[in-house]
Design brief:
By secondary structure, the protein is mainly β. It has a domain of 83 residues: Immunoglobulin-like.
Length: 753
């Protein structure tokens, strides 16, 4: 099989869907820029773009919905509904109502400019003025082409970052990282720096520094400068005018002669005499989620005031608390680990970046986020791992609070030294229980991995609730461990990245948890040229359907085909058909038909079951992956959906590699009727492992015989064994187990048009 067949994302109970589509899941609550249009509001976020319609419905846009990037920083909309969105890498997308998005890549491809991120967009007539890290560019929306770009404003430094653009009649003002400048649009050549007037300091000689915003109010130019004041130009010099009433002054806005400003903590109205009136609550005084901050201000013509924030699109209503709107999605774009519960729900641990973002659950349709702020059962947002338990519960590892069990009813129970005496803490603080990973073995024991601990590297909880702790007595206490796997013999393969030892530490309790005398510890050194042959690190461990142990390293893939002889290590996938040698392996996942999915710093490689062939390779050039550096992988056993996590969010694609049924019950075929040559393929769901499929005419003549991928789902392309499209008629789809012990039949109508 030369290529992996892709399928649309499936929910746990859904039937096989259309082949070849991806989905992107991102957090869109970090709203960097917002604009209020006539039919709702548009927002540029760290996870794409969303449109909040007037009726409260959201439309999300990501890289699978017409966008060219995922991290958006600026957005604008014109009177005709055209939307211009700019990203942190310089890519621009334009939305035309009724048609969709198109790409403008000129800035992103301008490699001669070192910094190309888009910072702000203003539309004037048919032209979009695009502020960027190198200056100001003008894009003609009607002609779909760039005109002039301005990279030097008066005496300000070349390629100063432009933070904001403001129009006053025919004058265009720019707020830059070094000062303020103004040019006349009627001037023939604004590319000449001499045709711009610029300022970089106040009347007392102090430098503006970075200027965050600029506008004209009552015939005076106002600028928000780094000194956290609004400074005012009186026609001759600049003087401080309004200081911050609390927080960092970010943006100003003008509507119907009224001046507004926001700080990262509040919204204010500014009078002509410079007095300031607070509107609504301050974010540090109203019981809002910790860390919530305002970022942008939008004033709609219908009276709406909307703010971009770190917690979504914030709306001001007089006398009411702030409300925050954001599309459904995970709580962040960080995914350290993924696991599937017994009920098919996907769970994600966010890790500890920025303190952690809790855990998030996806049922195939909706995300549910569990954080300290949202779930009273969560005591920390630093959640490092998740695993499903035989009893239907989920267990989670935390960074500091031990581990906790989430029961099917949603209740949580924590385990640390207060509950279990001797539960390991870190070397510097025995009360800080940092757990890196956790897994269940075949006996139902829960194993836990403890970071830089003096009292136990490994923990084990039996099904009866008894805890045991283990450390290699020959190694120093407090070593750095990164993850582990458990093989079919119950051996624990621990990845160690410490100055005292780097490689695999293999622990075997020999089935006697309470007896340490027969415990064995085996070291597989990472840089052993006759063994793991890594540069320094072992980065991933996975055990496949046959019990073989697959090890990712910083220079390729290794396999132990007999875990009973762990020192017999094979260098895997280095021949001409399968060359991943020298790849930095970041993650390994095994799908239900035993293919190996490798996360690397250059995308995802899918290997055949024996590792001898690359079935396909996905990266940002040939697929909608959000990033080439993969964080973690999981293949959903019930649906065949491959979840691929990067630091920019989560991608998914549906595959035919679904956990096969144990016995035939009912074959489900679709579409029915099937139109060969029009419909891409007929999907056949409900197969047992290794099924052989035959297509028969009503007279019993064999039309086609099909090899399946090996899982629950197979496909027929509508062609006969001789390669011709099947004729119109009714056909029987007959599926049989490899040994012929069982079979199932379904009918399909074939229609040739």
């Amino acid at each position: 099989m030369k290529h992996v067949i892709l399928m649309l994302l499936l929910s746990a109970s859904a039937a096989t869907a259309q082949v070849g589509m991806w989905h992107t899941y991102t957090d869109m609550k970090l709203v960097r820029d917002v604009v209020a249009g006539t039919d709702g509001s548009w927002a540029a976020t760290s996870g794409g773009v969303f449109h909040l319609l007037s009726d409260g419905r959201f439309t999300r846009y990501t890289n699978v919905d017409g966008l060219s990037a995922i991290d958006y920083t600026a957005i604008a909309v014109d009177d005709g509904g055209r939307v211009v969105a700019g990203s942190s890498n310089g890519m621009i997308n334009v939305f035309i109502p009724g048609i969709g998005w198109y790409e403008v890549s000129d800035i992103a491809r301008a490699e001669e400019i070192p910094a190309r991120g888009i910072t702000a967009i203003e539309i004037r007539g048919e032209k979009a003025y695009i502020a960027a890290e190198f200056g100001l560019a003008v894009y003609d929306l009607d002609r779909k082409e760039f005109g002039d770009s301005y990279q030097k404003f008066g005496s300000l430094p070349l390629r100063s970052r432009v933070n904001a653009v403001h129009f006053e009649g025919d004058l265009v003002y720019v707020a830059t990282a070094a000062g303020v400048a103004v040019g006349d649009l009627n001037t023939i050549n604004l590319k000449d720096p001499e045709n711009w007037t610029s300022w970089d300091r106040q009347n007392d000689g102090s430098q503006f520094g970075n200027v965050r915003d600029v506008l004209v109010y009552q015939d005076a130019v106002l600028a928000v400068i780094d000194a956290n004041v609004i400074t005012r130009f009186n026609g001759a010099a600049w003087f401080p005018w309004v200081g911050s009433p609390g927080g960092i002054i970010l943006r100003m806005g003008l509507r119907d002669g009224t001046l507004y400003m926001i700080t990262d903590l509040g919204l204010y109205e500014v009078e002509a005499n410079s007095s300031v009136t607070q509107l609504g609550e301050r974010l540090d005084q109203g019981g809002y989620p910790q860390g919530t901050r305002f970022l942008d201000l939008a004033l709609a013509s219908d009276g709406r005031i909307e703010l971009g924030s770190t917690f979504g699109l914030a709306r001001y209503r007089s006398g009411e608390a702030w409300t925050f709107e954001k599309p459904d999605g995970p709580n962040s774009n960080f995914f350290r680990s993924l696991a599937v519960a017994a009920d098919g729900v996907l769970w994600a641990a966010s890790g500890i970046t920025d303190g952690g973002r809790g855990t998030y659950a996806f049922d195939g349709t909706t995300w549910t986020n569990h954080t300290v702020a949202l779930d009273p059962g969560i005591t920390t947002d630093g959640i490092t791992d998740a695993t499903s338990a035989p009893d239907g519960s989920m267990w989670f590892a935390t960074w500091g609070n031990g581990v906790f069990r989430r029961a099917p009813d949603g209740s949580t129970t924590y385990v640390d030294a207060d509950i279990v005496p001797g539960f390991p803490g870190i070397t510097d603080d025995a009360t800080f229980h940092a757990v890196r990973a956790l897994r269940f073995d075949a006996r139902g024991n829960l194993w836990t991995l403890h970071y830089i601990s003096n009292s136990g590297m490994l923990g084990c909880r039996t099904p009866e609730g008894q805890w045991y702790f283990f450390s290699d007595p020959s190694l120093p206490k407090g070593i750095i461990v990164t993850g582990f796997g458990i093989d079919q013999f119950g051996q624990i393969w621990v990845m160690v990245d410490d100055s005292a030892f780097r490689g695999i530490l293999l622990f075997d309790d020999n089935g006697t948890l309470g007896q340490t005398s027969d415990d064995t510890w085996t070291r597989l050194r990472a840089n052993d040229a006759n063994g793991l042959n890594a540069d320094e690190d072992v980065t991933a461990v996975a055990v496949d359907q046959l019990g073989d142990v697959w090890l990712g390293t910083d220079r390729g893939l290794r396999t132990v085909f007999n875990p009973g002889q762990p020192d017999r290590i094979s260098k895997t996938c280095f021949n001409t058909r399968c060359n991943v040698e020298a790849q930095y392996i970041t993650a390994i996942a095994v799908d239900p038909v035993n293919n190996k999915w490798l996360g690397t710093r250059e995308g995802v490689f899918v290997l055949s079951a024996d590792g001898s062939e690359i079935l396909t390779h996905y990266d940002t050039d040939n697929s909608p992956l959000l990033d080439d550096e993969i964080e973690t992988l999981l293949i959903h056993p019930f649906t065949g959906v491959a979840y691929i996590a990067t630091r920019r969010g989560l991608s998914s694609l549906a595959t035919p590699y679904v956990q096969p049924d144990v016995t035939f019950t009912e074959l489900r075929v679709g579409p029915n009727p099937f139109r060969p040559g029009i419909d891409e393929r007929l999907s056949i769901d409900g197969l047992v492992e290794g099924s052989v499929i035959k297509v028969l005419s009503v007279s019993g003549k064999r039309i086609a015989e099909i090899a399946t991928p090996g899982g629950r789902v197979g496909f027929w392309n509508g062609r006969t064994d001789s390669g011709e499209l099947a004729a119109t008629g009714v056909y029987f789809i007959v599926a049989a187990a490899p040994n012929g012990s069982q079979s199932a039949v379904a009918k399909v109508a074939v229609v040739r048009e």
